[in-house]
Amino acid sequence: MTEDLPFQDQGATTLCYGCGPANEQGLQVKSRWDGDDAVCTWTAQPHHSGGTREVVNGGVIATLLDCHSLSLAIARAYQDEQRPIGSAPRVFFVTASMNINYRRPTPLGKPLELRATLRKVEGRKTLLHCTLSCEQQLCAEADVLAIRIHRDESVEPTR
């Protein structure tokens, strides 16, 4: 059943570094429904380190928060339009702004939980909040403003 598949594997994204399943060198974020929220479990590898061998790089954290949030915006838009994720015409969002608060060092090698919540939809704008936790301790959080765009799919391959 497609409800069990991550949004990305249903066609929400394709080539993105953070969440695109077609980007073999990317982070491979996999977002799933948890009620109205989206959740993802992801574990950093040693090459994701930032400053020391024990913590995740802040840019990687930003990418995780951004990609997971926009994946929820995309999935929710499809849901609101009552059509399958990835169906034509494709839904695209870009990040207009993101405010990140790093609360504590994020450890390498332990499962991290991302949880995105949709706060508001107003026209093309979607406001989301996303947290990144490890062992139930908040490591980082972000408020993300996503803007829905319409683009010519013939410019770039989708798979």
Q: Characteristics of this structure?
A:
159 residues; Thiol Ester Dehydrase, Chain A; 8 strands
General description of the model:
- The chain has one helix at 58-80; strands at 32-34, 37-43, 49-50, 52-56, 92-102, 111-122, 125-134, 137-149.
- The protein is mainly β and 159 residues long.
- The mean pLDDT is 93.
- The protein has one domain (2-149): Hotdog Thioesterase (Thiol Ester Dehydrase, Chain A, Roll).
- The radius of gyration is 15 Å and the shape is globular.
- Strands 1-2-6-7-8-5 form a 6-stranded antiparallel sheet, covered by helices on one side. It has a two-stranded antiparallel ribbon with strand order 3-4.
Q: Give the CATH level 1 class.
A: Alpha Beta
**Whole-number radius of gyration?**
15 Å
Listing every helix as H and every strand as E from the N terminus to the C terminus, the arrangement reads EEEEHEEEE
Mean pLDDT: 93
Shape: globular
Query: What is the number of helical segments per DSSP (H or I, 4+ residues)?
Result: 1
Largest sheet: 6 strands, antiparallel
Total DSSP E strands: 8
Q: How would you classify the helix and strand content by structural class?
A: mainly beta
Assigned CATH architecture: Roll
